[in-house]
């Protein structure tokens, strides 16, 4: 399977740093683009950590949960809540009707850049990430292509934006916990049926063909190659709303190698 551009960038950036500095740089995070950290070691001692970001990139997200007419922080978020998280949620709640009504559309959140940058800095600080390396090129990297700066300088080299979105998932095989509810809905249509589980799917067999594939408001069935036999599915659902932080690299790319050497005594 071909590598993604961000994966190639991470590998090449790590190689570049190993060739440029007298230290050991290693990519952490594997195939997860949300944990794209380069660790820096000298004599097997961890001295700092660098965030690797290719091109326009996601810098984090906050997962939300609607509760009693307002948004609250959801524990599905990968990061802990902080004071800037609460400021963002406060803004969303002051415009709740605008954001609560959206489905799959993304909506720009018009909030102060300083709040957004401080949120990103706080998240990276919590992860002990002190530097960021970035580029709009993903391969054949040279010194003029690469940005290497302390995290606390990101507002000088990136534009930042925040987008509210609610992802939609497609129709899925019905989970076992919903079978009883499905039967209650199907009983209103017919009671002449059997349900069998096979290969993590539920098969419905009826004595006669169904005239409507919708079973209540939450479920549907799809035909198999056997007459009067159907797969049971749960209709598409919306996941938790969330806000996503986006960083876009400016043109003033600067590789602060001398500062890196000075701070870490390389």
Order of helices and strands: HEEEEEHHEHEEEEEHEEEEEEEH
The span between the termini is 37 Å
Rg calc: 25 Å
Q: Structural class from helices and strands? A: alpha+beta
Shape: elongated
Helix content: 10-25%
SS summary, helix count: 6
Instruction: Tell me what portion of residues adopts beta-strand conformation.
Output: 35-45%
**DSSP E strands, number:** 18
Topology:
Elements: H1 5-20, E1 24-28, E2 37-42, E3 45-54, E4 57-67, E5 70-73, H2 83-94, H3 96-100, E6 107-108, H4 113-126, E7 131-135, E8 147-150, E9 158-165, E10 168-169, E11 172-173, H5 179-187, E12 193-198, E13 201-206, E14 214-215, E15 219-223, E16 229-234, E17 237-238, E18 242-249, H6 257-264
Parallel strand pairs: 3-7
Antiparallel strand pairs: 1-2, 2-3, 4-5, 4-18, 6-9, 7-8, 9-18, 10-17, 11-16, 12-13, 13-16, 14-15, 15-16
Helix pairs in contact: 2-4
Give the key terms.
elongated; single chain; alpha+beta; six-stranded antiparallel beta sheet; five-stranded mixed beta sheet; 24% helix
Structure description:
- The chain has about 270 residues and is of the alpha+beta class.
- The protein has two domains: about 55-170 and about 240-265, no CATH class; about 170-235, no CATH class.
- The protein is about 25% helix and about 35% strand.
- It contains six helices and 18 strands.
- Strands 11, 12, 13, 14, 15 and 16 form a six-stranded antiparallel β-sheet that branches. It has a five-stranded mixed β-sheet with strand order 1-2-3-7-8, with helices on one face. Strands 5-4-18-9-6 form a five-stranded antiparallel β-sheet.
- Strand 15 and strand 16 form a beta hairpin.
- Helix 2 packs antiparallel against helix 4 (about 115-125).
- The protein is elongated.
- The two termini are about 35 Å apart.
């Amino acid at each position: 399977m071909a590598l993604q551009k961000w994966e190639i960038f991470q590998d090449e950036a790590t190689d570049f740093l190993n060739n440029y500095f007298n230290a050991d740089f290693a990519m952490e995070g594997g195939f997860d683009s949300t944990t794209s950290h380069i660790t820096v070691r000298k004599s097997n001692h961890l001295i700092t950590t660098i965030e690797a970001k290719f091109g326009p990139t996601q810098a984090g997200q906050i997962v939300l949960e609607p509760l009693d007419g307002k948004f609250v922080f959801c524990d599905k978020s990968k990061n802990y809540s902080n004071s800037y998280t609460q400021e963002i949620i406060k803004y969303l709640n002051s415009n709740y009707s605008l954001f609560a009504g959206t489905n799959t559309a993304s909506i720009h959140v018009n909030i102060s850049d300083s709040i957004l940058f401080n949120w990103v800095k706080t998240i990276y600080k919590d992860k002990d990430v002190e530097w960021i390396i970035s580029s709009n090129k993903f391969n054949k990297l040279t010194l003029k292509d690469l940005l290497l700066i302390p995290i606390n300088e990101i507002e000088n080299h990136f534009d930042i934006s925040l987008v509210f979105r609610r992802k939609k998932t497609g129709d899925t095989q019905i989970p076992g916990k919903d079978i009883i509810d499905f039967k209650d809905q199907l009983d209103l249509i017919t009671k002449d049926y059997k349900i069998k589980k096979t290969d993590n799917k539920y098969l419905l067999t009826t004595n006669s063909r169904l005239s409507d594939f919708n079973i209540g408001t939450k479920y549907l069935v799809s035909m198999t190659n056997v007459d009067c036999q159907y797969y049971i599915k749960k209709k598409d659902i919306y996941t938790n709303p969330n806000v996503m932080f986006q960083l876009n690299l400016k043109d003033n790319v600067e590789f602060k190698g001398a500062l890196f050497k000075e701070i870490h005594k390389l």
